[in-house]
């Protein structure tokens, strides 16, 4: 698998040279009928694929203003050309956002504009052929829909919208991506991306309860399908077993316990992630979202709280109310839905959580802003809360914190390299190369400021870092969950940590006097 | 010849207005079914207006992205705006005082416009990334605008045209009372290319002018938790679904 070279760190972040076709190829594994049919796709390519492709394109042009406007408004100024992490990592010019959009735009021009119909060469319009379709499949699966390019585009063109449209069109002619479609099917059949059945999940949660009680002496509950509790916790299924995700889940449990908020996960909706977003399918985003509504109703909860997951938070924050609302049956004193960081941050502000930062003194942290949280959602009641709240929580739990370079964080953050439905082994080369700009920024604070670890609030980022950090000479466990830091620092009422700490503090006072 | 130009401009004007109106109607009719502002985004409509104004007037995103492209692009657009404004004198019978005062500035605006265009052209020809994404039409637009600018400068500084007659000609088109146009080569080239530009605008990338304001990534208010946002076609979909309600 690993027959590629890990890119070298650049001495200065200069714009890379173009290497045409560096990433040409067949793209990720193609989906199969068994996965597709559940999602409403044909499963194999029909004879009249060309007609169907153009029909679907026309349909989407009439459904999404973004797609229609973005096809027209590009001026080819080049502002985006050096902004994509996949371009920086692979040097393939088709990974420049404008060139990626142009793969679709040149077909749009040929069939849907006057200039392209009559003067195709002049405006760079081409006929739709099977090769064009193959190129779409390959290069629209080299975009993680992270929206970094859109921040820099003078016209606000969001390549993610074009990528989503392309994937939706491809899926409608039986040319979907296996990884995403198989996962969505698992959500429908089993309830989560990883295919963890209810009983297995229950076992894991019981183990967690034991572990936490052993550690702290406090009987923190990790419930599944418990009716009548305060909150439904929607968290990515990776939180149930992957490292460092599960340490974050332990943290959510401790925080909610300390605040007296009772909660449960649902076996039916045991997944916050919504890969419908990645494949650009309104129908599938909605169908996946409806499980959350159904679970909230069945379990008679008053609130919905989301765990650390980037695109899940985008769908939850930006779309859930629209797709599965109105949520008038929930307690309107809380935002619907609410992010676990909003809960923790609010509690810290109100002085309801006791955090012993010294527990994390062996760490010097930095924070990786996850793309979907940074550029497609918000936390709290002010724009930019999605940047300030995670940092405030980390700083409340940890004494040593350093930000990475300002052009690699907040709304200019670089994708981890594995977002947007690309977190699959058949795209390992792309994932490693796409991680380059983030790894460079991390390397810099590691060398200059002694940063030891990086925290993230996205299951995909965490999995991607675990895999790619070693390629760049870091330890795989340098990536942490934000609530893992909280979990280490929290001093719950009545816990062993409280007894130990208060004892020590009194002694310290005595010696000072 | 004068009649040809008069007709050309009448057609060009109609194509421009109708073509642009059709496009704007299309953009306004296609729904934006989901909230997709690029965040951090404003929480109010007033905030959105400020965000769009910053993009339209200052090119804020481009400034963040690339200082050279911003410099040349902004210089060109702002100069063009001034140049267009001073051309109003050909369409207003009694020129208001502010427009008279603006005329000397126009002289310099023509030069800054040309410098901006040259900068953009050089960038397009010599920066590998920009060259890669350019089609023939991208160069032709710059050349077209350059020739329009250069012929304008020629008339102003080198070979003067009888601007009184030009004004009579343009006012004549407006009132369908066609007048004779002076037969100077720079003027004829200048006007011909302007007409071509007007005719092609609704079919080209010059649609970025309305497009800028219709981008949902920039023109949406960030309030999805407070307000549902249902597109007409999505509402139909929703009605079909048997929505689950608490008992």
How would you portray this structure in words?
Chain A is mainly alpha-helical and 513 residues long. Chain A folds into 2 domains: 33-176, Fumarate Reductase Iron-sulfur Protein, Chain B, domain 2 (Orthogonal Bundle); 185-489, no CATH class. Chain A has 23 helices and 8 strands. In chain A, strands 1-3-2-4-5 form a 5-stranded parallel beta sheet, sandwiched between helices. A 3-stranded parallel beta sheet of chain A has the order 6-7-8, with helices on both faces. In chain A, strand 2, helix 13 and strand 3 form a beta-alpha-beta unit. In chain A, helix 5 crosses helix 10 and helix 13 (245-258) crosses helix 22 (482-489). By secondary structure, chain B is mostly helical. Chain B has a domain at 2-65 and 135-240. In chain B, 70% of the residues lie in helices and 0% in strands. Chain B has helices at 2-29, 45-58, 60-65, 67-86, 97-126, 128-132, 136-158, 163-174, 185-200, 208-214, 216-219, 232-240. The model of chain B has no long low-confidence stretch (mean pLDDT 94). The chains are: A mainly alpha (513), B mainly alpha (247). Chains A and B meet through helix 2, helix 3, helix 5, helix 7 and helix 9 of A and helix 1, helix 3, helix 6, helix 7 and helix 10 of B.
